[in-house]
Amino acid sequence: MVVEEIKTLILGADGMLGHDLQKVFSDAVSRGRDLDITDEAATGAFIQELKPDLVINAAAYTDVDGCEDNRGIAFEVNGKALEYIAKACNNVGAILVHYSTDYIFDGSKEEYVESDAPDPINVYGESKLLGEKNIMGSMDDYRIIRTSWLFGVHGKNFVETMLRVSGEMDIVRVVNDQFGKPTYTADLARKTAEIVGLAPGIYHITNEGVCSWYEFAAAIIDNVAPCSSEEFAVRAKRPRYSVLVNTKTTPMRHWKDALGEYLKIRETGC
Question: If phi over 0 gives left and psi between -120 and 50 gives alpha, with beta otherwise, what is residue 201?
Fold first, then answer.
């Protein structure tokens, strides 16, 4: 399947990943906050009228701690809305690509393959898992891409946070007992084009290389020190290990190489 030859709709196009998806799927119809995916009638009517061949959903409520306080919103946006989108895609015969998360796992294993059983430990993970289930219960021609620790040029992310607080604090303390794989949204967007042409199912797509949040931070700033999760209190519990293993496609480059490109673009604009 050639990306340029199919009619594509990108939902959540104004987000960090959405901006990079627009570069890869340059002829796509893009919708951001102007389409409320929690409105079943509006979402269904729009997809029915457009009749796309491919729908890429990058819309999500990603504030992990905020989900604890706004459970209803989390389950509407990350869970129930996916039933609306999936049913609408099924009605017009469109492929659906949707992004899920490493946080559907509890962190009791050091790594997870696509077939491992989910067991989320926070509201964000629960809501994203509901989204997965609603897709699989509503259609067959889907690609669920689980990813982790996203950073990209067009949005708030861990890299930007580290660069900002590094200038505000003498020492930045970052947890060293949570492990995962950072993922560059530009790489993920390009990989998405490949996934569209593969078999329906679940895919684990991240940049290669495992690190702790502290190790990730140390690659960005100099004035960082490790601390434990117990020392750094947050609303939502995080899995200690959320390493996603890709068993279905060729691997992407190492996260350190992707980070180097990101920092260069940030500094030079190109």
Answer: left
Rounded Cα distance, 68 and 75, in Å: 11
pLDDT digits (tens, 9 = 90+) for 6-36: 999 999 999 999 999 999 999 999 999 999 9
pTM value surpassing 0.70: yes
Residue spans of the domains in the chain: they are: 3-157+181-209+243-252
Structure tokens at 235: 């609303």
Which residues are part of the catalytic machinery?
124
Q: Within its chain, how far is the Cα of 53 from the centroid?
A: 22
Q: Could you give the CA distance from residue 9 to residue 190 in angstroms, rounded to a whole number?
A: 16
Asked if 200 and 143 touch (Cβ cutoff 8 Å), the reply is yes
Contacting residues for 270 by C-beta, under 8 A, at least 6 apart: none
What superfamily in CATH does domain 3-157+181-209+243-252 come from? NAD(P)-binding Rossmann-like Domain (3.40.50.720)
